[in-house]
Amino acid sequence: MLIIASANGAVGIEAAMQVLKNGGSAIDAVEAGIRLVEADPAERSVGYNGYPNILGQLELDASIMDGGKLNSGAVAIMRGFPYAISVARQVMDRKLPHVMLAGEGAERFAREIGAEQWASMLSDEVKAIWRKRLIDNSALLDVGDMDEDSPLLDAVTMATDPERVAGTVNFIAIDGKGDICSGVSTSGWAWKYPGRVGDSPIIGAGNYADNRYGACACTGMGEMAIRACTAYGLVSYLRAGLPIQVAGQKAMRDLRDLGGDFIGGMNLIALDRAGNHVGMTTRAGSTYIYQHPDMDQHGEIERRLVEIPARWAGEARQ
Ligand code: ASP
Questions:
Q1: Which of 157, 166, 209, 229 is most buried as measured by Cβ atoms within 10 A of its Cβ?
Q2: 207 domain-assigned
Q3: Which class for 91: exposed (0-12), middle (13-18), buried (19 or more C-beta within 10 A)?
Q4: Is residue 65 over pLDDT 90?
Q5: Domain of 117, in residue numbers
Q6: Separation CA 299–CA 18 (nearest Å)
Q7: What pLDDT does 306 receive?
Q8: What is the pLDDT at residue 143?
Q9: Which pLDDT band holds residue 4 (cuts at 50, 70, 90)?
């Protein structure tokens, strides 16, 4: 038994390990751990009180993957339901022939299964941060003037800064039977264009698990992980027989091949089926956490640095 998570999973990892110790499955543990992060008002990149899109609406993305059956469920741009991971799990578990539901369809499904719905998904503090950020950084001088047809392109480019206002939670668990599950939940980039979907709900991009080889989950600039199929890429390197450290480095280095004007930071956590684990990052000093059943508290490890030169709007960035 083992759980690894992004560092912001600290509020949930002990509870998740308890689920495993009580005989629960890796899927149960991942869901339990992520739900605690989604409910945490201090976490600004996941669930309730995450940073909203440019219109001030909180749109959540999440996915879960069962490495035994290669089964998965995902929701994208879902509003009003804080526990996105649980809705994603129900997409996987219910007798739906679908893997991902987005927008109004995801919300309809969430209502139909009786998922917890909250009238307000943002605190006044976060609303004030959003308003200030928009006024400080965008061409739109008065947020109150925005309507359905307001042009948002320039405002999004200016107000979105993936280095400072992004985040996501990753959990990967191996249970007592050796089954692996990976889960990812996020509010995505702060100030994103409405309807933007990141890597987190996309199987193979931000999330992948296969009992036979291992699992990987990403945080960072989702557009990059989508384009490089980062989570599946890492698992495919494990499948080719590479050790986890090498597989991680190769999956990160693949991101260097991406062209275009928008290249930001990327982080991943991964484990192989034997329980060897690794964290990779483009940002020095970033960490991830892990817990074995014999540990009362989780441990924290620095991720390995893999440099990917960042550029934004065509200009090199620090
Ligand atoms: N990967 C997330 C997304 O692109 C954001 C992040 O992890 O920083 O939506």
A1: 209
A2: yes
A3: buried
A4: yes
A5: 2-310
A6: 15
A7: 97
A8: 60
A9: very high
Output the domain CATH number for residue 278.
Answer: 3.60.20.30
Residue pair 82/47 in contact (Cβ under 8 Å)? The answer is: yes
Does residue 200 sit within a domain? yes
The residue with greater pLDDT, 198 or 136, is 198
Give distance in angstroms: CA of 148 to centre of ligand 1: 25
* Nearest alpha carbon, ligand 1 atom 9: 188
Is residue 318, in this structure, part of any structural domain at all?
A: no
Question: Of all helices (H) and strands (E), which one includes residue 271?
Answer: strand 266-272
Nearest residue (CA) to ligand 1, atom 4:
222
Predicted model pTM: 0.96
Locate the ligand 1 atom nearest the alpha carbon of residue 196 and give its number.
9
| Residue 317 covered by a domain | no
Mutate to test the pocket of ligand 1, among 191, 192, 200 (most ligand atoms within 8 A of CB): 200
> Which residues are annotated as catalytic?
168
Q: Using the mean position of ligand 1's atoms as its centre, give its distance from the Cα of residue 56 in Å.
A: 17
| Residue whose entry in the numeric block shows the structure tokens 């600004």 | 44
Which atom of ligand 1 is nearest the CA belonging to 192?
Answer: 9
Amino acid identity, residue 146?
M
pLDDT at residue 134, as a whole number: 78
* Dist. CA 21 → ligand 1 center (Å): 30
Token pair recorded at residue 193: 């264009």
d(CA 12, CA 259): 37
Instruction: State whether residue 180 is helix, strand or coil.
Output: strand
Structural contact between residues 175 and 199, judged by C-beta atoms closer than 8 angstroms? no
Find the residues whose C-beta lies inside 6 A of ligand 1. Answer: 166-168, 186, 188-189, 198-200, 206, 219-222
The minimum-distance atom of ligand 1 relative to the CA of 221 is 4
Number of domains forming the structure of the chain:
1
Q: Which residues of 194-207 are buried (b: 16+ CB within 10 A; e: fewer)?
A: eebbbbbbbbbbbb
Q: Write down the mean pLDDT value for the chain.
A: 93
